[in-house]
UniProtKB/TrEMBL annotation:
GO terms, molecular function: 4-hydroxy-tetrahydrodipicolinate synthase activity
Protein's name in the database: Dihydrodipicolinate synthase family protein
Pfam families, sorted: DHDPS (PF00701)
Matches recorded under Gene3D superfamilies: Aldolase class I
Taxonomy of the source species: Bacteria, Pseudomonadati, Pseudomonadota, Gammaproteobacteria, Enterobacterales
Keywords: Lyase
Species name: Serratia marcescens
Length: 102
């Protein structure tokens, strides 16, 4: 069976922030499985910003966030925005130290 799912943003076009949030909200509403949101803007051309993630705090089954943006401040910004609501994962070796520090 499946214990959880990792969900990427829409890949077909560059979405607006509210569209990206709606995408994740729609997936969260369609399953009871725990969800990890995966952010990789250099590849997907859509950035799941701290503001977008903050708008998803009420989706109880969104539990993790994996960031591959390469932005070393992202983990601090996320922690300031959402506290410990989500488990945060570094998707790039370059930002592992920053992710562990927060």
């Amino acid at each position: 069976g499946v214990d959880g799912i990792m969900v990427m943003p829409a890949l077909v076009y560059s979405a607006k922030p509210h569209e990206t949030a709606a995408h994740f909200r729609s997936v969260a509403g369609a399953t009871d499985l725990p969800i990890m949101v995966y952010n990789n803007p250099p590849i997907y051309k859509n950035d799941v910003t701290p503001d977008i993630l903050t708008s998803l705090v009420d989706c109880e089954n969104i539990v993790c966030f994996k960031d591959s943006s390469g932005d070393t401040r992202r983990f601090i910004d996320l922690r300031n925005e959402v506290g410990d609501r989500f488990v945060l994962f570094a998707g790039l070796d370059d930002v592992v130290l920053e992710s562990i520090a927060v």
